[in-house]
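Q: What does the predicted 3D structure of SIR2-like domain-containing protein look like?
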Amino acid sequence: MQKNSSEKQLDTLARMVANKKVIPFLGAGTSIEFNPSWDNLIKDMGSKVDLSHLNTQDTDYFLNAAQLFENKFGRKGLCTFLRSQFQISEFIDDKGTADLMLMSNAFPITYTTNFDNVYETMMKKYNRDLNVICSANDFEKNTPSPKTLIKFHGDYNHPDNLIITKNDYKHRMKVRSGLDIMLESHLMTNNLLFIGYSFRDPDLQKIFLELENILAKRSISVYMIAFEYSDSLQRECNKYAITLIDPTKMFPGKHPKVAFQLYLQKLNDRSQRLFSSAQFHGLFYGSVPVKGVTNMEIETLSRNIPNETFDNAFSEFEHLYSGPIQIPKDRFKTVSEQIGILCNKAVNSQQLQKIATYVSYTYLTRIPDKELMFNNMIDLLKGANRNNISGKIDFMSYGSVLNWEVPDPSVLIAIMALTCSDILKNNEPILNHFPDYLVTLSEIAYPYCLLPNDLKEFTEKWLTKFHESAHTPRDSPIYWQHHLFFELHQNIRARKPTDDDISILRKLINQRK
């Protein structure tokens, strides 16, 4: 089927993102779930300083309001006010779609005009290194880091670099700053992507004016994913040859905020697939240099990680198996055992997700021995029980990237039964949320009742025993599958297990007798 213009545009952006040939530039829409709207911010300012004489239709209305606030309370008072409005103590994933998309795509450089600490708080939550730059001088102070956030207008923690009042903009437009030079150098070989701006942003036109000279010198593509599309925004973008993307065209009928988030999710999904495809194409077709991993390196890692913390162990594991790699065929089992050790070390759901996500997007997904992969799926599930997860661990991404012929929901119900068998035989405690998690997984799994009789009996036996031992008020996975597929006549979405899958599952069961 021929793709429409919106899909083609998305493909173009996804390729740029996957190839790291674009510089993201974040606007207020990326943090709107955490921060007050501009209208509410002005309202709060107006409760402390008289703004009644200002023209609300003036394009500099917000800048003038901020100037009056500073005139009355000083620079320190203005920064204190902004901190009370924009500083967060906790990053909530459901509110930070744009920031998570940027983190997962590992952009080395990100620009923003936002004053908040949302991006920094997210990176801290997930233990990612980040340099924060508010002036060119900050490069000298910061330690080297693979990720950098450049706050183009400063923030409330750097009063001298903050650009928010009318006087700040007057000075900025007269003097070429170090950050202007920095952006110009970054755009020498990269395109520019504005994310989360709307015509309601009080400094939008000023931003375009700031960048006009920089963009005029570069033959690059400039895109904007609108937080809220309008004809006015379209006209403004046309002035500067910016391609404006309206997410509601791809998601008609959705609220602009919802469409914006859905568009970013779709961009992330597509760019991740393209990135993975490019990485692995080189492995099998030779277009990208492949790093060979030696037996000595693998043995060293096996000696080191049992005695280290999860963070240190995972860091070493990630470093060794990064990029397109070639593992000696006789060491696949050792690598699988290392994954199992990491699962045992994980002390929270975030760490388990790190394992699942990393393995999903590396060569390790293509370990040809399915038995090892099945065992690692069991390791992840047992780790989920030990950590008493309350949210979903997307471990099914392990083995389902790019639709490769690797474990997927077709074997999931039997893997769940093998996991329950191990937990009960080893007298491991069953923590509160895990039985509920198994019920959730059973909804996407191939129906156990359609498995061969021996696998069906094994699955029913151990899932039932586990449910009885868990003393949970929830229905068992066995009951729930009966309910879904027979009482509700739900379509079977998971593919049927292959003969090879069945053979491996039987082998794993026999090993446990």
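A (community wiki): The structure tokens above were generated from the sequence. Residues 256-285 form the longest helix (30 residues). The beta strands are 22-26, 109-112, 131-133, 148-151, 191-198, 222-228, 243-245, 291-292, 325-326.
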